[in-house]
């Protein structure tokens, strides 16, 4: 059977393979055709119909339609190794930095916020209360002035 593969860079690869062979055999053929540097078997992920194809599964089990294509993703083994080394070192430094930053950052930020909010809230209720009292006092003054 002929399988059409597409890379993430939209390159198309045609591979003839026996459907009884495993996905790993297909990966080996891709490596042989395209080169070990660009398409190492260990770095290949083949995806068809939203599923990652497992190495030990026969190709026929995935019912790949020759009209459709299989996506080939290649992850570089060197990058993965380089990434794991700094990533194990990286958490150590940020944990210390974030600990000191967290202590210093939220403390000053939290203090100014509460005093600002209560001040307007407290200022609003006395204003209507004093207005009501003023009206009552004015009314009382006017009545007493007329009564005298």
From TrEMBL:
Stored InterPro entries? Ubiquitin-like_dom, Ubiquitin-like_domsf
- Which superkingdom, per the lineage? Eukaryota
Per UniProt, residues of the Ubiquitin-like domain are: 1-79
SMART domains per UniProt? UBQ
Q: Which residues form the signal peptide?
A: none
One GO term in the molecular function aspect is: proteasome binding
- Positions of the region Disordered? 78-148
| Name of one Pfam family that matches | ubiquitin
**GO biological process entries:** proteasome-mediated ubiquitin-dependent protein catabolic process
Pro residues bias located where? 109-128
Q: Which GO terms describe its cellular component?
A: cytosol; nucleoplasm
**Listed PROSITE patterns:** UBIQUITIN_2 (PS50053)
Output compositional bias ranges, type Low complexity. 78-108
Q: What is this protein called?
A: Ubiquitin-like domain-containing protein
Which species does this protein come from? Hucho hucho (huchen)
